[in-house]
Design a protein that fits this description.
Layout (H helix, E strand, L loop, with lengths): L12 H20 L1 H18 L1 H20 L18 H12 L2 H6 L2 H8 L8 H16 L1 H20 L11 H4 L6 H35 L8 H20 L2 H26 L2 H17 L1 H6 L9 H28 L6 H33 L4 H4 L4 H9 L5 H31 L8 H21 L2 H38 L14 H8 L5 H25 L5 E5 L4 E6 L7 E11 L2 H5 L10 E9 L13 H19 L18
Antiparallel strand pairs: 1-2, 2-3, 3-4
Helix pairs in contact: 1-2, 1-10, 1-20, 1-21, 2-21, 3-8, 3-15, 3-16, 3-21, 4-12, 4-15, 6-7, 6-16, 7-13, 7-16, 8-15, 8-16, 8-21, 10-11, 10-15, 10-18, 10-19, 10-20, 10-21, 11-12, 11-19, 11-20, 12-19, 13-16, 15-19, 15-21, 19-20, 23-25
């Protein structure tokens, strides 16, 4: 019998079907009813930007401060993977890939246009030309600096940590493991991944659509094509996406890495080209001053909502808030890709590299291109460039015309944009397939090709119908709920990092310092057993009380009055030596409980526990220091432990410098 061969797929039905329905639905609405959809989504976007912009401001601020804290904290030396893991890629390749995925076409699109738009904006026109130029650089630095990369960094860090440290799937759902535990495998996890997939698809589609327009504009400037029209858009997209598919199916180790390395070299070449042939002294001086202004105004820029400057509010919504929303909407895609290439790095290395190196390069790039354009506009072009500020597609190439060898530079620029296009598309296909398959290790190549075809088709349909702006608005709207999700990433990370640090730094039990090996069989039985409340109370009533009674008698024979106290809630017994001038000495043992891990309850090769709650005798002290489990102590070992603490107590009160700290006003014991 002939059997129809079954097409193998690694796509997850719970992710792919809801995602495609939503993607196709929004895309069709944007294509069939572009104006209606654009107006509707734009109204929603404006409502969010005007009334809920503070969510973006606070979310981004908290993310920046949290990452800086992690970088300098004790958690910074934790490795993204096993403690002995090593980075898979060289430092240069790693930086090249995260840089190409993180900014890509945006650097080429906004490198000249954003500084020029700020410079020519009426909001900054009240000051001198010098102030306008300084503000243009400062706000460009702000929008493309640490804040942008912190947004990418928190997603990449959370994904890397839980994927390589906890060995969970490289998926956004894994970042919620400390909060949701095994629920991440079900509908909650699918919902998170659907959101990430749709956000990634919308972001890449709109970026690629605008990138095609800029490439066509450059080709028109160089007379490679007679005019920019839809027919040429189709040809450009088909060629470039085909190359992107070839790069994507070859994998991260080959196509993506090689193209990213080539692109960084191309960008650096263009950068030095403009720096050397442009107003070099002016650029170096303005970069130095710009860095100083950025550092000096960092916190005021971070928290400034321009609420007292009504004339600046529209600019604030259209630039700062739009940028925060745009970076947030792109963060699932960029974060996933960064995580994919970051195994083996330490948290400190990851944050320092992701926050500082791309930021520094962005500052250099924006200074060289943007400030060169402003300088040409002031000294040579006589305002011609500022008049083109609203046309970023043509502005870059018109700016290059004022440099020597403009044809060569323009050709190099187009080549860089083309490679950025390919690297954005191929890493996008790679990431979308990873999300849709729950990070399957091996997937059939037709799935990657399918994502490329879908990207191409929808980008061209929307470009032809004028629906890209509507899709861009949808992308920005999705940033609002994801900003809250990113804050939950911080909560998850912090919970996990605390456990991680405690696991590797927790010392041996205090009780083990007394062990000689004499009672090892009895101790093994105690270690692998779990106690109920009654058995712990029995231990306190026998071993603990007997030890305290014997101590009380010995203290009395040495002229020291000791008292044994009993309490019911929680059940505990303590020995107390009262003092008039200094704190009382107290050593007690209480009946304490803790909840057992679900893994321990389900594991066959671990001690059996009948209930999820277990009890143990825990020591406590009069000065509220942290106690410990004393169930493995014999009577004599418990006496020895009390005497250790009493000897410590005598040493402390005998030192003159401790008089204020140990005064009797602090006589507060456990209640």
């Amino acid at each position: 019998m002939n059997k129809t061969p079954r097409v193998r797929t690694t796509l997850s039905k719970g992710i792919i079907f809801p995602s495609l329905i939503f993607i196709m639905g929004i895309s069709l609405l944007s294509a069939l009813f572009p104006k209606v959809t654009e107006n509707l989504l734009n109204t929603i976007k404006e409502f969010i930007f005007i009334n809920l912009n503070w969510i973006y401001v606070w979310a981004v601020t908290i993310i920046v401060l949290f990452l800086i804290y992690l970088m300098v904290s004790k958690y910074g030396n934790i490795r993204l993977g096993r403690n002995d893991s090593k980075p898979k890629y060289s430092f240069f390749s790693w930086i090249s890939m995260l840089f190409a995925a993180g900014m890509g076409i945006g650097l080429m699109y906004f490198g000249v246009s954003e500084p020029m738009q700020h410079y020519s904006n009426e909001v900054f026109a009240s000051g001198s030309v010098v102030d306008q130029a300084k503000n243009a650089q400062l706000y460009t630095f702000f929008h493309w600096g640490i804040h942008a990369w912190a947004i990418y960094g928190i997603v990449g860090l959370a994904l890397s940590y839980f994927a390589y440290r906890y060995r969970l799937p490289l998926s956004l759902r894994s970042c919620f493991y400390p909060l949701l535990k095994d629920k991440i495998k079900g509908k909650w996890g699918n919902t998170i991944d659907v959101f990430a997939l749709c956000s990634t698809f919308f972001g890449i589609t709109t970026t690629l659509g605008f990138g095609v327009v800029q490439i066509a504009s450059g080709l028109e400037t160089l007379n490679f094509i007679p005019e920019s029209n839809f027919m040429y858009y189709v040809i450009i997209v088909c060629i470039l996406v085909s190359l992107s598919i070839l790069s994507a199916v070859s994998g991260v180790d080959k196509g993506v890495r090689i193209l990213s390395n080539i692109n960084v070299i191309g960008v650096i070449t263009l950068l030095f080209f403009v720096l050397a042939l442009g107003p070099t002294v002016f650029l170096i001086g303005s970069f130095t001053e710009g860095i100083g202004s950025y550092i000096n105004d960092f916190f005021s820029l971070t928290f400034n909502t321009h609420i007292y400057e009504e004339n600046k509010l529209p600019w604030f919504y259209d630039w700062t808030i739009l940028y925060w929303a745009w970076w947030i909407s792109w963060s699932p895609y960029v974060g996933l890709f960064i995580a994919k290439i970051s195994q083996g790095r330490t948290i400190r290395e990851f944050i320092a590299a992701v926050l500082l190196l791309p930021t520094l390069f962005n500052f250099i790039w924006m200074t060289v291109l943007g400030n060169s354009a402003i300088w040409f506009d002031l000294h040579i072009a006589e305002g011609a460039l500022s008049q083109l500020a609203g046309n970023p597609d043509a502005l870059m190439f018109r700016f290059l015309e004022y440099l020597p060898f403009s044809k060569i530079i323009s050709f190099l620029t187009i080549l860089i944009i083309v490679i950025f296009f390919i690297t954005s598309a191929d890493s996008g296909m790679f990431v979308m397939n990873s999300i849709a398959t729950k990070n399957a290790r091996i997937s059939p190549k037709w799935q990657t090709i399918g994502w490329g075809i879908l990207l191409t088709t929808l980008a061209l349909v929307l470009l032809n119908a004028g629906g890209l702006v509507a899709l861009q608005s949808m992308t920005l709207i999705t940033a609002l709920p994801f900003s809250v999700i990113m804050l939950l990433f911080i909560v998850s990370l912090m919970k996990a990092l605390i456990i991680d640090k405690d696991y590797y730094e927790r010392d041996l039990s205090v009780t083990s310092t007394h062990w000689s090996g004499e009672y090892w069989k009895e101790r093994l039985k105690l270690i692998i057993s779990f106690n109920d409340k009654k058995s712990v109370s029995s231990f306190i009533n026998t071993t603990v009380k007997s030890a305290f009674t014997e101590l009380q008698q010995e203290f009395s024979e040495n002229g020291i009055e000791a008292k044994i106290n009993h309490y019911e809630k929680p059940y505990r017994v303590e020995i107390e030596i009262k003092h008039d001038m200094v704190n009382n000495f107290i050593y007690g043992v209480k009946n304490e409980s803790k909840t057992l891990s679900d893994y321990l309850l389900d594991e066959d090769n671990l001690p059996d526990a009948e209930e999820s709650q277990t009890y143990f005798p825990e020591s406590y002290f009069g000065d509220a220091r942290e106690g410990y489990d004393v169930r493995l102590f014999t009577k004599n070992e418990l006496i020895s432990d009390v005497l250790k603490h009493y000897e410590r107590f005598i040493e402390i009160i005998s030192e003159e410098r401790n008089e204020m700290f140990i005064s009797s006003n602090a006589n507060q014991r456990f209640k």
